[in-house]
Amino acid sequence: MPATRVRLIAPSGYPRDSVAVARGVDRLREAGCTLDGLDVLDRIEQRYAGSDAERAADINALATLDVLPDIALAIRGGYGATRLLEHLRYGALRERLAGAGTVLVGHSDFTAIQLALHARCGLITFGGPMFDPDFDADVPSELTLPHFWRTIRSTQGCAEWNSSAECELEVEGPLWGGNLAMLCSLLGTPYFPRIDGGILFVEDVGEPPFRIERLLYQLHLSGVLGRQRALLLGDFTECRHGIHDNGYDLAAGLAQIRRVIGIPVLEGLPFGHVPDKFTLPFGVPARLRANGGKARLEFSSYPHLGGSVP
Questions:
Q1: Which of 23, 157, 159, 283 has its CA 20 to 30 A from that of 145?
Q2: At what angle do helices 111-121 and 90-97 cross, to 10 degrees?
Q3: Alpha carbon distance 49, 43 (integer Å)
Q4: DSSP string spanning 125-183?
Q5: Phi/psi of residue 85, each to 5°?
Q6: Which spans in the chain are helix H?
């Protein structure tokens, strides 16, 4: 079996632990990967993994490389991807990558890149693991990396989890989403795709309950949620209520959202700033089924190792 070619890209922050970096490089090589772009792991400019020009060039290079990588792997989230959106070569990226088998993957701040590439190019990307903190973890998740490799080595994928939803549900539509704050930050811009009849998944970190409710209200009042078939809630980590909330918490905020948006809401999706996360292709046909506290998401028609998009 030929080696899997992985190219590291750095749209946002830089990894902080040199021991973890070495561990991540070793882990990818042990998985049968050859690595390009290792220099991005050493770049630091303020809070970013290099200048805006360097970080945009990491992505734009995908339009000009003689040989495309099998995987373009974001090294970290944080902040910085939004600064790149005006500098990406969307036409060239579409011409080179549309229909190709390159897997572009990341989460958190990488959501901005995913939204822009889909809005401007129609490109399919993946919400999933990053070099840091997933591939370089001291103890890797027993879910995350196996699900990632299984998904991108196949023409079809699925994700199953326990959900508190008691309703029976079966819907189909484009699968999309990512970090909630990043989604809302691009509303009203040319980098936010219009997706109707979709299955939207969201997650976030460090936002108190009222801000999560407010962000979801922004999607509701802008009409985005009303155009979807279902909303999937991932992990909302470091979500702390305030001393004056008087019993108001995330559950209360989500209950309010359920009352107003008029579409099914399912909780419990393993995705977000947590060790256990699924790999979810952004922009592909999907089917969501829920029954008896179980949820199953099936998806297809995405880039995968050894093949192009059908």
A1: 283
A2: 80
A3: 5
A4: EEE---IIIIIT-SS--TTHHHHHHHHHTSSEEEEEEE----S-EEEEEEEEEEEHHHH
A5: -60, -35
A6: 18-30, 52-60, 90-97, 111-121, 144-152, 180-185, 209-221, 250-261
| Whole-number Å distance between alpha carbons of 75 and 21 | 10
Q: What is the pLDDT along the chain (310 residues), one digit of tens a residue?
A: 679 999 999 999 999 999 999 999 999 999 999 999 999 999 999 999 999 999 999 999 999 999 999 999 999 999 999 999 999 999 999 999 998 999 999 999 999 999 999 999 999 999 999 999 999 999 999 999 999 999 999 999 999 999 877 678 999 999 999 999 999 999 999 999 999 999 999 999 999 999 999 999 999 999 999 999 999 999 999 999 888 999 999 999 999 999 999 999 999 999 999 999 999 999 999 999 999 899 999 999 999 997 655 4
Place of tokens 């093949």: 307
Distance CA 201, CA 83 (A): 24
Q: What values do phi and psi take at 231, rounded to 5? A: -120, 125
For β-strands 284-291 and 169-179, DSSP reports them as antiparallel
Rg of the chain taking only CA atoms, in angstroms: 19
pTM of the model: 0.96
Nearest Cα residue to 271 out of 198, 188, 205: 205
Positions marked catalytic: 108, 203, 273
Which residue type, as a one-letter code, is found at position 143?
A: L
C-alpha distance from residue 81 to each of 25, 65, 68, 204 (Å): 23, 21, 22, 16
Residue 217: both structure tokens together = 């209200």
Q: In sequence order, what are the beta bridge partners of 203?
A: 179
> Does the bond joining 11 to the residue before it have cis omega, within 30 degrees of 0?
no
